[in-house]
Amino acid sequence: MTKPLILILLLAPFFSYAEWSTHRFSLGLGYTYHDTTIQVGKKSLGALILSTEDTLGLDDTQSSIRLNYEWRFSQNKRHSITTGWYSQHRSGRRILDQDIKYFDKNNNEVVISAGTSVETILNFDIVRLAYSYAFFLDDRINISTGIGFYIMPLEFGIGETGTTKTESDFIAPLPTLQLKSEVKITPEWTLSNEFNIFYIQIGDYTGSVIATSLFVDYQFYKSFSIGLGFEAFKLKVDMSESSDVFDAEVGGELNFGNNSLIARMRYEL
Fold it and tell me: pLDDT tens digits for 16-63?
């Protein structure tokens, strides 16, 4: 298996490559595995860590549509702007198999007993805009760095069935640092990866996100290509004690992570 790849890499400089495209449209379908935990209650009063999948009934797998567009707007193709969007909305209902204990805003202990029906929602969207500059660019390799913004509407709520507590926030543009590379292994095959890191603030919430991806694409007909890739996304949010979950003062953490297998089709011109 390794010999053909080595041969391709050795012969790659002798292939004839097309110029980098000006416009690139991408439509993807991602299959995602979720792993989310939430801390309920003050740490000083004995907080409780809940798994939104195992304890609260949210699906741990989900499929979603992803849209992206890239425009290389300079004559030398070193400058580009990228936009993208995808959403992951989940809701679930679970009959608790264990008691949930927390303290309300008046420091009174509240118990949701095992056997109680609980509803949960967790809706998360990402809208992205980024600028990048290719500091190394030839007909085969494109390595760039950039800055950008994320806008992330978030809606979260859990509670007894019929009394779900919901917190909604529309997040202002958040600064992003980006590093990405794209290598044309042959005129038809392309390998690309991307790394993003940024700081997030959602009302009383603060935290950080790390996102990385790796794709292989094959140009099967003129300007059309298909690809397969992997993406990892990790969000950690620290919540102030004024944030409400179960009408409790949280003062804890939300850890939201997902790993996605993504199939996509691209059109370039």
Answer: 677 899 999 999 999 999 988 877 666 666 667 778 888 888 889 999
Identify which of 69, 96, 93, 67 has the alpha carbon closest to the alpha carbon of residue 80: 69
CA distance 266 to 226: 6
Q: Is 8 helix (H, G, I), strand (E, B) or coil?
A: helix
Structural domains of the chain, count? 1
Tokens of 41: 């209650």
CATH code of the domain in which 105 resides:
2.40.128.90
**Is residue 194 included in any domain, yes or no?**
yes
- Which residue is listed with tokens 């939201």? 256
| Cα-Cα end-to-end distance for the chain | 33
Structural domain for 27, as ranges = 20-268
Query: What is the reported pLDDT for 14?
Result: 60
Q: What is the pLDDT of residues 98-113, one digit of tens each?
A: 777 766 666 777 777 8
Per-residue confidence (pLDDT) for residue 27, from 0 to 100 = 98
CB 20 within 8 A of CB 183: no
Which residue is it, tokens 């702007």?
A: 81
For residues 211-242, b (16+ Cβ closer than 10 Å) or e, as one string?
bbbebebebeeeeebebebebebebebbbebe
